[in-house]
Design goal:
By secondary structure, the protein is mostly helical. Helices cover 24% and strands 0% of the residues.
Length: 38
């Protein structure tokens, strides 16, 4: 995921500051309720 974001926003194929010691977690947040006005 981080490599895709780096490609989209930085124009590089691999995120340049990734180290093997890092653990990256992706959370998918689903809304329970949406309130709008206007």
């Amino acid at each position: 995921m981080i490599d895709k974001l780096a490609h989209d926003y930085m124009g590089v194929d691999v995120y340049p500051w990734h180290t093997p010691e890092e653990t990256r977690v992706t959370f998918l947040i689903e809304p329970v309720r949406v309130v709008t006005s206007g």
